[in-house]
Amino acid sequence: MRTVAVLGSCVALLCGCSSSAVGGSGQQGLDSTAGSGGGFSTGNDPGTTTPAPVTSTVTVTAPPPSTTTPPPGPAAVTVPSGFVGQWYGHGRSMTITSAGAVDIGFRTYVDCDATHTTGCDRTIGNEIHDGGVVHGRITAVKNSNTVTLTITSTTNPEDIPLGPTKLGHDLNHDALALFSGQFSGVPFCGSGSPSGYCGA
Fold it and tell me: How many distinct structural domains can be found in the chain?
């Protein structure tokens, strides 16, 4: 019996040393250990629970989408009304729209064959199809009688070359004429032109 009492005292001392080693005695010391981040329950106190995990929210703001503005196209011009319509000459014609589109057709007097396949006249049945085909646009207006015609495509650049050229309106003869290539100064007549002014 005496031996048991000594052992009981040792157990009590050991427990007291263990509790004080962690910063307190008894249940209070264990609770302080659990509260320091152990994340578990001692099991001795039914009111003690595992603390909820700490969460943080990070909000990432995406940069605004980049926008690319296309380069501006060619500025529209107001075509003088005197240029708008259909114009004719012997073996040639020109059409100008109010939007400034220009189409020119003319005879090249070179028949298509094995050697000449483009920019040549084709005879289909009884009809002759002009080999000269030119497209362009009025890109600038100097005054009511003078504009800049920019040629964008041509089957016969020696007759009417690519690029800008002056196009004038002869009010005295109601005729148009451009000033580049072999067609420089050749008139295209309107409805008010004198008879024969632009050829038969």
Answer: 2
The answer to whether position 146 is within a domain reads: yes
CA distance 160 to 41: 97
The secondary structure of residue 131, as a DSSP letter, is S
d(CA 11, CA 187): 128
DSSP 197: T
In a domain, 197, yes or no: no
Establish if 53 belongs to a structural domain: no
Measured distance CA(124)–CA(103) in Å, rounded: 22
Low-confidence ranges of the chain (pLDDT < 50): 1-43
- Does pTM top 0.90 for this prediction? no
Which residue stretches of the chain are H helix?
2-21, 27-33
Question: How many Å apart are CA 93 and CA 177, to the nearest integer?
Answer: 11
- Same domain? 89 vs 22: no
